[in-house]
Amino acid sequence: MSWITKTLTSTIGRKIIMSVTGLFLCTFLVVHLVGNLQLFKHDHGAAFNIYSHFMGTNPIIRTIEWGLVLGFGFHIYEAFALTSRNKSARGAQGYVSNHAEQNSEWTSRNMGILGTIILIFLLIHLYNFFWRARFGSLDPDINNNDDLYSLVVSSFKQWWYVVLYVAAQISLGYHLWHGFRSGFQTLGLNHRKYTPIIKYAGYVFAVVVSAAFASMPLYFFLFTNEKGELAANAPTLIHAVASAF
Ligand code: HEM
């Protein structure tokens, strides 16, 4: 067995894979979030559809997408492997209480369940948007691009979809709350000055990213008509924020 295989299959090697893939997925979330902000533009989805068309056809993006598939694949596989190993290790300890609830944060102990909720969301999300964008037949918009915007708006007009999305973003927020800092820690970044900064940056990242994603289904469900146009009776604050886009 080469040293690379040995390292990558050892406990610490597997934790490193979790951290690297997790931090890579964090950068994906930022790119995805910034692209999705186009949904708030008052242009009947033209900018969002141009962006989606670019993401779906650009050869560099299509290549990076394979990295994303591998990143998600490794991260999810290792998460399940780690959870089952931890369970059997706890089983082997027999009747010895380790007072996990006193020794670790709630988010840290529930990374498995939070990750599973995100996985279920992801499967539904990919089928509804990604699969239908790439392999379905969507109507063209005014620029002759696939009108993915209308699909997003009609999805977010269904209450169960909004509930699923908001629940998934709460799980994502909790998952990132622990995961961001933990990723850096595993990679050996332990420093008297920088560790607290990374910890609080992780908290801000978790809250901002999940709240911004959750705002999208809530915005379309509560404040727009069936075409995604801002309703006249939406609160003044929403009008003010929306006009900034
Ligand atoms: C609530 C806000 C979100 C909206 C409106 C949204 C919208 C979309 C759309 C329209 C696509 C298809 C893009 C295309 O193929 O051109 C897509 C793809 C994707 N989404 Fe989301 N998304 C949201 C949140 C998320 C979250 C929170 C995650 C991860 C936890 C995620 C993961 C993905 C992945 C992995 C893809 C496929 C890769 C890609 O095409 O870039 N999305 N999303």
Give a short overview:
The protein has 245 residues and is mainly α. It is built from 11 helices and no strands.
What does the model show?
This protein has 245 residues and is mainly α. The protein has one domain (3-87, 112-243). The chain has helices at 3-9, 11-36, 46-57, 59-92, 100-103, 106-109, 111-135, 148-155, 159-186, 194-223, 236-243. The model has no long low-confidence stretch (mean pLDDT 87). The structure holds protoporphyrin IX containing FE. Protoporphyrin IX containing FE binds at residues 32, 36, 52, 55-56, 65, 68, 118, 122, 125-126, 129-130, 133-134, 148, 152, 165, 172, 213, 216-217. The site of protoporphyrin IX containing FE has 22 residues, from α2, α3, α4, α7 and α8.
